[in-house]
Amino acid sequence: GDQEAGEMGLAAVPGRQAAFRQGLAAAVQYARAVGCPRIHLMAGRVPLGTDRVAVASEMETTFIENLRYAADLLAQEDMIGLVEPINNRITDPRYYLNTPNQAATILEKAGRPNLKLQLDLFHCQIMDGNLSHNLETYFPLIGHIQIAQVPGRHEPDSPGELNFPYIFKLLESLGYTGYVGCEYAPKGDTLEGLGWLRSYWESQGVQHSGSSKATV
């Protein structure tokens, strides 16, 4: 969408279907070039000046229509489409897709096997909490996991509400074999911000070798 105009994705925005399809085609080209098998299909925001409840039905219909179109296109590329609930309490009050339950309902209605849930535990904790239950409940739908500490959205070992060693063990016990995306704002630089990962590997008995500096 047009970020300068306040758009944050288009998949659920009525009247923007043509722009969504254009953006999707470009995203597929980029994903194909870099070998990325998953694309986040961002729902978008409730239009300015409209009431969320009043437009909910139309936005859901638009979202499902666009998701089906995207899924059929992505299936030709052996790719997966992801939908991510983003909290509307702190991060984005106008974002349309807010909870795992809402996402699960829409995925069921869309009815395409290559559409999955991108579960960011930062947003999930803010909206629902009860992470263990939610991970177990929605695990069959999950196509990607993202993490950040709550409430500061910093490294997993920064002060906050979430016990990430427990969460990582839970994901392993559930059989999760995908990537865990670190979508947080480092308190310092990137390398310093990955110190928690080295410490976690050591706590799990994993030997990590390699330079801490990039080589060109």
UniProtKB/TrEMBL annotation:
Pfam families: AP_endonuc_2
InterPro entries membership: Sugar_Epim/Isomerase, Xyl_isomerase-like_sf, Xyl_isomerase-like_TIM-brl
A biological process term (GO) from this entry: glyoxylate metabolic process
Keyword Isomerase found: yes
Domain of life where this protein originates: Eukaryota
Annotated keywords: Isomerase
TM annotation in the entry: none
Molecular-function annotations in GO: hydroxypyruvate isomerase activity
Record-annotated Xylose isomerase-like TIM barrel domain positions: 9-199
PANTHER family for this protein: HYDROXYPYRUVATE ISOMERASE-RELATED, ISOMERASE
Entry protein name: HYI isomerase
Species: Brachypteracias leptosomus (short-legged ground-roller)
